[in-house]
Write a structure and sequence with these properties.
Layout: H1 6-19, H2 24-31, H3 35-42, H4 50-59
């Protein structure tokens, strides 16, 4: 999936979390990240900390791939 902005990334993360039947509270406990951070991330907050975002992506069983455009 091609992600063009933080809002699309947040929606993708939220969709995956819900598919796994994880609540934000569960994910917060599991990752040590606040529910506020997770909520902001899912709502596309553009200033989310990249290391935390990558951690969430990995815990949800997803990969982040960056490729050069041709």
């Amino acid at each position: 999936m091609k992600i063009k902005n933080s809002e699309e990334l947040g929606k993708t993360i939220r969709k995956r979390r819900k598919k796994l039947h994880y609540t934000q509270a569960y994910l917060s406990e599991f990752t040590g990240l606040s529910i506020t951070f997770l909520s902001d991330l899912e709502h596309g907050k553009p200033t989310a900390q990249i290391e935390k975002v990558i951690k969430v992506i990995h815990i949800l069983g997803m990969d982040l791939l960056v490729e050069e455009r041709e």
